[in-house]
Amino acid sequence: MTHIPPQQWMIEQHQLGHSLCLILDSEDERQTRQVLLDAQDPDQYCSVYSETPVADMADAGPFMFLIDNPEDGQLDELLKAPERNWGWLASVPPEAGLQALVKHWRERLIVGTRPHQALYRFHDNRVLTRALKHLATGAIAGYLGPIISVCYWQGQHWETLSNPAPGNHPVPESPAWCEVPVESDQSAHIREVNARRYLLAEHLDAYARIAEQQDPDLWLSTQLTLADTWGWQAPEQLEFLLIQSLKEPEGKLAERWKARPDETPTAHFERVYQATKFWQEDVPL
User: Which of 12, 36, 188, 264: CA 20 to 30 A from 256?
Assistant: First the structure.
């Protein structure tokens, strides 16, 4: 890894004949995205979530843009504000182009198995930073795929890294990047994003009723805080908590849900789970 200003990195990669790509977290950069969309031809950008199982979230998902001229100032605003964590930059072979990069990340987009699947936030420079920090050299090629080099803000300075073997690599059965430790604050953010997406995808009507009664983001945050308080960290525990909360008046759980003194998280969950099954007459959750 080396420290090179992004402008210099882009110029060097361009001079080497590589194509430059911006991976943009457009959910928080809609204005920048629109400026780029207005300035480029349709074959120079792509919504990653489109044509995938999460196509309904394409507008809030990441976009990729080809950057033809690294010196035209198109990205100046982004490069001056890396603390906004807007994404990262990559270079790819011209013959691979944008579509190869999009295909690569679409194949790695959804991790886990149903009903505990989650979206991998590859477009977040913080996620990329942790992955590249923890992955063994042999796993980097499968992670970066056709990418020749990446340039990203790692929290304190710009970092660049060359891919040891750019190309088309299959997704491993157990991807090493899914085992990378997650910092607590980022883990909480990812969990909240995935919980919201799960509710919108699987329980839209019930979640919409909550939104009619109160701030849905505050409600979700409250449920996640409750899960932390009770030590319910497993996906099935959180899923159970969210679903049952949606069924309660105003989304608030009854007193019987509270943990008893000296009750372990596992015992607490099992007690409430069995009681709920009994009162709901074993109706599947």
Answer: 188
What letter does residue 23 receive in the DSSP assignment?
E
127 with 255, same domain? no
The candidate with the shortest Cα–Cα distance to 206, out of 231, 162, 243, 255, is: 243
Which position has the higher pLDDT, 233 or 8? 8
Mean pLDDT across 12-19: 96
Nearest to 27 by CA among 59, 64, 4, 72: 59
d(C-alpha 151, C-alpha 14), whole Å: 13
What is the pLDDT, as a whole number, of residue 182?
Answer: 64
Mean pLDDT of 220-236: 87
Give the range of the structural domain holding residue 273, as residue numbers without chain letter. Answer: 185-279
For residue 254, give Cα distances in angstroms to 187, 208, 247.
Answer: 28, 21, 11
DSSP calls for 199-233: HHHH-HHHHHHHHHHS-HHHHHHHHHHHHHHHT--
Nearest to 220 by CA among 206, 85, 284: 206
CA distance 219 to 204: 15
One-letter identity of residue 25: D
pLDDT at 283: 45
Residues 128, 40 share a domain: yes
232 touches 238 (CB < 8 A): yes
Mean pLDDT of 236-262: 84
With a CB cutoff of 8 Å and minimum separation 6, the contacts of 89 are 6, 9, 10, 20, 21, 22, 23, 67, 150, 151, 152
